[in-house]
Amino acid sequence: MSDRLDAILAQAVPGTASAAVAVIAVDGVVAASSVAGELVRYTDLEFTLAPERPAAQRDSIFDLASISKLFTTAAVLSLTEDGQAGLDEPVARWLPGKDPRVTLRRLLTHTAGLQATRRIDLELPDADPATRMAAMVATPVTGEVGGPYLYTDVGMVTVGRIAELAGGAPLDELVRARVTGPLGLADTGYNPGADRLPRIAATEWKPERPGPGCVRGRVHDETAYGLGGVAGHAGVFSTADDVLRFGENLRLGGGPVLRPDTVAEMLRDQGAEGAAFRHGLGVRIGDPSIVGPLEGAFGHSGFTGTSLVVDPVRRLTVVLLTNAVHPVRGRDGIRALRHAVATEALRLAQ
Questions:
Q1: Distance (Å) of CA 104 to CA 55, 190, 312
Q2: Which of 110, 134, 138, 260 has CA atoms 20 to 30 A from the CA of 161?
Q3: What residues are paired with 34 via a beta bridge?
Q4: pTM score, two decimals?
Q5: Residue 125: is the preceding peptide bond cis (ω within 30°)?
Q6: Distances (CA, A) of 76 to 79, 83, 233, 302
Q7: What is the pLDDT of residues 210-246, one digit of tens each?
């Protein structure tokens, strides 16, 4: 059943990524799964082979990178259902002095006029995470509010902070209480403990981090790391099966995490102009970098080499977790790999 998927991953590993896990579900039933590679293959940016190279497994844990944005989105949307936040009210309610035109909806659609990113760890090298977070959410509007689309980690960091202020708890606790807990996603969360380290895939070689060597068990994203590992745009670690269950939850209407009408609004084209895809609330629709032939599917990609694609029409959920940044970023082939897995999913659904 997985021979074709095995061949796809074998062709990409270790050239594109050192480890990969792919799972395809049709109508909620796993139709194919495959695992390839090693969780730690290299020791440095010279691609020196590690003396011990543990094999990847179906339950291996990967840094999801920007797929984290979907967990943040689910958490903040659950707060809107409870009346603790509003999609269209000014975020100045929680962040006094913020431009009154900035709303959660605009933050979730990347149309709030905020810059793409801030390396707050470099701007404030000696500051603690709380001081850095305060500086992040104080980032001024420098673009046109309401559009065009400008992908911004700053905006999603701000969403995460608003969730904390509205929900009265840290973001990691909110995501656990409102999303991963109700769904039983035991291997999904921020800052995984030392007990999970043997199952975690390594990412990039960063000699400036404690180690030194290739990052493993700590978030790869520099901004999220500078914020203590918990941020609205990155920081979640998970397994392929947990991500699959999360994707299936959205495909089937969101219960018990969200109401069906909330999920419908999340997946509705919000009219953001200037992107290569349509944009829902926190989610991309028809993103050509990940959906391949699954036109109209929704999901998100992650810089580390991850992707979640959900196609409600074809009843498909497709998860690909890799560490394509190990030991260095910029390796070729991740787009082709995502497309190949999506193409196989389409074949299985026919």
A1: 42, 23, 26
A2: 260
A3: 22
A4: 0.98
A5: no
A6: 5, 11, 13, 20
A7: 877 899 999 999 999 999 999 999 999 999 999 999 9
